[in-house]
Design a protein that fits this description.
The chain has eight helices and eight strands, in the order E-H-E-H-E-H-E-H-E-H-E-H-H-E-H-E. It is α/β, with parallel strands linked by helices and 258 residues long. It has one domain: TIM Barrel, CATH 3.20.20.150. Bound molecules: ligand LASSHYVV and magnesium ion. The site of the ligand O=C(O)C(=O)[C@@H](O)CO has 10 residues, from loops.
Amino acid sequence: MPKFAANLSMMFTEVPFLARFEAAAKAGFKYVEYLFPYDYPKDVLKTKLQDNDLQQVLFNTAAGDVQAGEWGVSAIPGREADSHRDIDLALEYALALNCPNVHIMSGVVPPGENYAKYKQTFIDNVRYAADKFQPHGIKILLEALSPQVKPNYLTASQFQTLELVDLIDRDNVFVQLDYFHAQNVDGNLTRLTDTLNGKFAHVQIASVPERHEPDEGEINYRHIFDKLDEIGYEGWVGCEYNPRGKTTDGLGWFKPYK
Ligand SMILES: O=C(O)C(=O)[C@@H](O)CO
Ligand SMILES: [Mg+2]
């Protein structure tokens, strides 16, 4: 049975961020993920996790200057020092929060730029991270983001991310398989799951096209959850969706899995 993690950046937004830990635990979640921990001291987050019997399973490296269109900097040529600073800070948080996975945000490739140069910069920076995280047993995740959510992100297709994982060639680097983006770009989700089997270490879910609860729209998530069980997937499934209304009102789908 999948292990579901509440995404506290998107769920339980009825309450302030630090109150979402208790809200998720009360709703039956044992695991949480969220985009960025950096606005809060490590101790504060650690206490929230401990007080609510929750395990943190994922967060991202910093986004950079979001107003200026950044969504990570690790693929941007000339920004290696910033990328390494973000990776080092992520490692500090991962160790303090006992978090087993960190998603490294590549950033966008502006149209007309040299894509190969961005790709190589990302490969080099992820190798830097992989070697730093490896002694601590922390996995690095790379995600494809669909153009309707983040135009010109370094990777849009799961196959581009898979190619990067293979080129980076480190034992602790994996695909973050977000089925919402995968359906938007690649489709064919059952076969895709088989193709990526062993290469992905974290899953995220949301309906398509609305990015709501996984109980509507194009994807039959009951089938996907069975498929993940069938292949023996042991990682977490992050609930990265915008609830249609109040978060708890939309948790009917979660009842059988509590
Ligand atoms: O947007 C997504 O999907 C994510 O998983 C974010 O963490 C990164 O954009
Ligand atoms: Mg995602």
